[in-house]
Amino acid sequence: MWPSAAPPAADPLLSWELADVAELPRMRAQVRRAVAASIDPDVLDQLILALDEMASNALRHGGGKVEAAVRLTDTGYLIVVSDAAAAQPPTPAVDRDPSEGGLGLYLIARMALRHGWYAGNAVKHVWALLPRT
């Protein structure tokens, strides 16, 4: 479901160093301020949902410092989230009741044009390219 692959080239837009899920509301607000005027509201909601889900997964399961970024490509918004769990690929929940959560990776994969992950220098990078429209 989450292939091992490098992300496409992209230009920086926003980035964060995160240590706690309590920082996620600030991150979401910064995304809204930065791109709300230039993006369809539904696309903005998808971008924030995917970024929030990926960052919260990294904070809960990745161990250590988490870095999150939104970058721009010609076709979309590239979300990249890095954590210290280089040996643990992103793993969608299997055979779990939806009321227990764990379905965020499935949702992101369905919204994304492409998605993947790779590891290097003891860091895991999980990424998703969401369309601009």
From TrEMBL:
InterPro entries: Anti-sigma-factor_SerPK, HATPase_C_sf, HATPase_dom. Keywords: Kinase, Serine/threonine-protein kinase, Transferase. It holds the Pfam family HATPase_c_2. GO terms for molecular function: protein serine/threonine kinase activity. Residues 19-117 form the Histidine kinase/HSP90-like ATPase domain. This is Anti-sigma regulatory factor (Ser/Thr protein kinase). It comes from Blastococcus aggregatus.
